[in-house]
Amino acid sequence: MVVLTETGYYANGMRDGNFVRFNTFGQKLSLETYRADTLNGAYETYYNNGGLRLQGNYQDGLMVGDWYYFKQDSAVQIHEYYANGRLKKTEDFTDKKLLYRAYCKYDFYAFIGKWLKAAGFPPTHGDIVVSFTIAANGQPTEPKLLLGIDKKLDEAILAAIRNSPYWVPAEQDNLPVSQQITIAFAYKEDGRKH
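-> C-alpha cells emitted (194 positions)
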C-alpha cells in the first residue's frame, strides 16, 4: 500500500508553491508556501482531528502579520502580530473569554485571482501584503496595503477585498466582534498565486 505523505512542486530543484504534508491516515498535517525554496505566503499546521492548530503568513522567510494559535475546539489561544520577522504584539486568550477567529466559507485566494483575471492583469512576480478588518457583520472593510508590487495591481487587490463576499465574523463571548486580518500574496512569474 502506498501512502501519500507530501504534495508539492519543485522548480530547478527548489520548493515552489504549496507543500502539503499528511499523516499515515491521509489527514493534513501542514501547509507551507514557498518561492525559490524560501517560505513565502500561507503557513498552517493541523491537529490530528483535522482542526487548525496554527495559521500565519511568511514573507521572504520572515513571519509577517497576524499569527493565530488555536485550541483543539478551534478557539484562539494566542494571537501574535509580526512585522519583518519581529514580534510586535501578543494577546493570550487562555484565561480570557473564548475568541473564535473570523473565517470565510469560500476560497478567498481564488476569489482574488478571479477578480484580477477579470480586470486583465498579466502574470507578475512579487509579494503583496494587505491588512483589513472583518466587521462584526462579516463585511471586509478598511483594506490597507502593507507591501505592494505595482500601484494598479495593488489597487485592484484592495478593490477586490472591498467587494468580496462577507466572512463569518469573529466571535467573543457568543457575540460577533470585528477583527483585523493580515494576508500575504506571493505571485510567480506565470501569475499563479501561492
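Confidence is low (pLDDT under 50) at residues 190-194.
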